[in-house]
């Protein structure tokens, strides 16, 4: 099966899912070997307990120790980046329990909101929260299970990709951002928040290499400096990089050239 799905097909599947009460689309099934070889940091979000706790204290902790403003304030911060692409299709990549997916859907700024995550337990939690909301239209909101490094969407078909507190969890940030760049239409926008590691020596390539190799061995998360985040976007073909930061929190934005 080709993973370059167009949205006509996706929407058709959406209505089939509603008819049969399916919570989400499992767009990619990985074998047990592929799952075992993922990093420990990525595996943590697959646990049912983490999925249950994510909006019950876990995400709130980001504000206390990393300076994250909180979902509503983060949404207000990113509106300037989203203005040129309102009315289009947005993917909430690594959506977790769907905090931002629900915010995007309720804002009515987008024609389609895709809540996407690799974790089945996170998507089930996302689905449960959506069912509890009274003012979310399910006509323009779909849930998709997929690997960030192999997105099941056609090239140049998406207007916005958002990744909230996610980049540092991806097994390969470069593979993820490259895929995002591929599916963005010309002029499309990538907005992300993550934890930042920087300092007077963060630009030294040798230290960066040590950090990356340690991460590969230990399975810990990948924390990048603001210089590395800018290089990551540029390497993947994105331009007009900009950022806002507060403590260890950073929000970055870049776009695909016209």
TrEMBL record:
Pfam families: Methyltransf_11
Alphabetized GO MF terms: demethylmenaquinone methyltransferase activity; methyltransferase activity; S-adenosylmethionine-dependent methyltransferase activity
Enzyme kind, highest EC tier: transferase
EC identifiers of the protein: 2.1.1.163
A single cellular component GO annotation: plastoglobule
GO BP terms: alkaloid metabolic process; methylation
InterPro entries the record matches: Methyltransf_11, SAM-dependent_MTases_sf
Keyword entries, A-Z: Chloroplast, Methyltransferase, Plastid, Transferase, Transit peptide
All copies of domain Methyltransferase type, residue ranges: 92-191
Similarity comment: family membership: Belongs to the methyltransferase superfamily.
Protein name: Demethylmenaquinone methyltransferase
Organism whose genome encodes this protein: Helianthus annuus
Lineage: Eukaryota, Viridiplantae, Streptophyta, Embryophyta, Tracheophyta
């Amino acid at each position: 099966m080709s993973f370059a799905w167009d949205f006509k097909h996706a929407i058709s599947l959406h209505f089939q899912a509603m008819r049969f009460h399916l919570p989400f689309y499992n767009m990619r099934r990985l074998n047990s070997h592929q799952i075992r070889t993922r990093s420990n940091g990525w595996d943590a979000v697959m646990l049912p307990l983490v999925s249950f706790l994510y909006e019950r204290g876990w995400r709130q902790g980001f504000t206390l120790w990393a300076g994250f403003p909180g979902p509503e304030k983060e949404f207000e911060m990113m509106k300037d980046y989203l203005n040129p692409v309102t009315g289009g299709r947005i993917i909430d990549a690594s959506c977790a329990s769907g905090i931002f997916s629900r915010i995007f859907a309720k804002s009515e700024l987008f024609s389609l909101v895709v809540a996407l995550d690799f974790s089945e337990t996170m998507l089930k939690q996302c689905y449960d929260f959506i069912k509890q909301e009274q003012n979310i239209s399910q006509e323009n909101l779909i849930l998709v299970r997929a690997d960030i490094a192999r997105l099941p969407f056609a090239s140049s078909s998406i207007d916005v990709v958002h990744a909230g507190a996610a980049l540092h969890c991806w097994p390969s940030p470069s593979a993820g951002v490259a895929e995002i760049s591929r599916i963005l239409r010309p002029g499309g926008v990538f907005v992300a928040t993550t934890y930042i590691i920087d300092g007077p020596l963060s630009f030294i390539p040798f230290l960066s290499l040590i950090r990356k190799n340690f991460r590969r061995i230990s399975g810990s998360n990948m924390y990048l400096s603001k210089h590395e985040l800018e290089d990551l976007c540029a390497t993947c073909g994105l331009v007009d990089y900009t950022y806002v930061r507060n403590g260890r929190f950073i929000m970055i934005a870049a776009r695909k050239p016209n």
